[in-house]
Design brief:
The protein has 209 residues and is α/β, with parallel strands linked by helices. It has a single domain, classed as Bacterial phosphonate metabolism protein PhnH (Rossmann fold, 3-Layer(aba) Sandwich), CATH 3.40.50. Helices cover 31% and strands 21% of the residues. It is built from 7 helices and 10 strands. The strands form 2 sheets. The protein has a 7-stranded mixed beta sheet, sandwiched between helices. Helix 6 runs parallel beside helix 7. The longest helix is centred in the N-terminal third of the chain and has 15 residues. The protein is globular.
């Protein structure tokens, strides 16, 4: 099964995944900066090629994942990466391809503990639609603040994340990506704000109100 699935793709598990990883690292270290992995996602087949490119880069047999509302994708990801399929509450990586599933993923994603905040989930969200104003990011990797033009999907996802009121330094990482391979990150310690849409910083220090 794995051999058959691998042969239908031309994505190189070593060379291509290293390049995609470097691009994703650039996005994580510079929140809001858009990188493009479309060239490498195009080497994969199916209507969720961008998800497969991320999965084949980040997942292995030591991590777990969950896919929202897609019956076929979990088995393919598991076959290609050997990662374990788990319930959403315990998954290390969560893939969501609709605004509703993105909201559900964020509400249920593990956010780490105060002792081990890094043991949190990364939620990968398909980001499609028209740009609708800017959101403002502040935090590690950003000097001052950075304005990012965002779709309604991004704005809604950030609003849901902010509503969780994580205790600092807990939180979840968000990766937004389009079918064309455009990708940007909002790491767990980066706050998103914007008076126009009512989003306000969602990470607070323990004991703050």
């Amino acid at each position: 099964m794995t051999l058959r699935l691998t042969k239908k793709h031309s994505f190189d598990m070593v060379y291509d995944s290293q390049i995609v990883f470097r691009l994703m690292l650039e996005a994580m270290s510079s929140p809001g900066t858009v990188v493009n992995i479309g060239k490498y996602a195009d080497k994969l087949y199916g209507n969720k090629a961008v998800f497969l490119a991320v999965a084949m880069t980040l997942l292995d047999n030591e991590v777990s994942f969950h896919v929202c509302d897609d019956a076929s994708l979990p088995d393919e990801i598991a076959s290609l990466t050997f990662a374990a399929i788990t319930p959403i509450e315990s998954a290390d990586f969560i893939f969501a391809d609709t605004p509703d599933s993105a909201g559900c993923a964020i509400e249920n994603a593990k956010c780490g503990t105060l002792a081990d905040p890094h043991k949190s989930a990364t939620v990968i969200i398909l980001n499609e639609g028209d740009l609708y104003g800017r959101i403002w990011l502040q935090g590690p990797g950003i000097q001052g603040s950075r304005g990012v033009w965002a779709t309604q999907t991004v704005r809604d996802a950030l609003a849901v994340r902010n509503a969780q009121h994580y205790e600092y330094p807990q939180g979840i990482d968000l990766l937004f990506m389009s079918n064309e391979g455009n990708l940007f990150a909002v790491p767990r310690l980066v706050q998103a704000g914007g008076e126009a849409d009512g989003i306000c910083g969602g990470i607070r220090r323990k004991g703050s109100h």
